[in-house]
Design brief:
- With 142 residues, the protein is mainly β.
- Helices cover 5% and strands 34% of the residues.
- It contains one helix and ten strands; from the N terminus they run E-E-E-H-E-E-E-E-E-E-E.
- It has a seven-stranded mixed beta sheet. A three-stranded antiparallel beta sheet has the order 1-2-5, with no helix packed on it.
- The two termini are 23 Å apart.
- The mean pLDDT is 90.
């Protein structure tokens, strides 16, 4: 039986306009929501919703020529649809790192397991009761 922290089904995703499609042949893992100011801006939302993937299990199905990337000086970045603007995935040093949960189709059989950087969340955001929260990133021993 699959836990809510990991998914074991083939997962498909696409951008808002549907021109870019991808598939993950493996598990989504470590789903999280980051509330830092950078994620709020990158996702145009109160937080990100993101899960990690193994790069070798990720495959573009169509529209890869429409991808545009933003990469920080530290090697982390995001890839977007140049037509509709959807944030599709995260990259690290040129490899797929994870996918945005909002662009997944169907039920990926995963839930957000933790909320990180809630110490810098927007003043207007109210965190739900009972969720696992970290003021900054997840501690090494967690």
């Amino acid at each position: 039986m699959s836990s809510i922290m990991e998914s074991e089904v083939a997962i498909a995703g696409e951008c808002f306009c549907g021109e870019i499609k991808y598939q993950v042949e493996g598990k989504l893992r470590d789903a999280r929501s980051c509330h830092c100011s950078r994620c709020r801006k990158a996702f145009s939302s109160q937080a990100s919703a993101y899960a990690l993937v193994e790069p070798r299990e990720f495959k573009w199905i169509s529209g890869q020529d429409l991808l545009t990337s933003y990469v920080s000086k530290h090697g982390f970045g995001l890839q977007f649809c140049s037509k509709c603007g959807s944030t599709l995935c995260g990259i690290y040093n040129g490899s797929i790192h994870g996918v945005t949960l909002g662009c997944l189709n169907g039920d990926p059989e995963i839930e957000i397991g933790k909320h990180i950087y809630v110490g810098s969340k927007a003043s207007w955001e109210v965190m739900p009761a009972g969720v696992i929260q970290y003021i900054e990133g997840v501690p090494e021993n967690a």
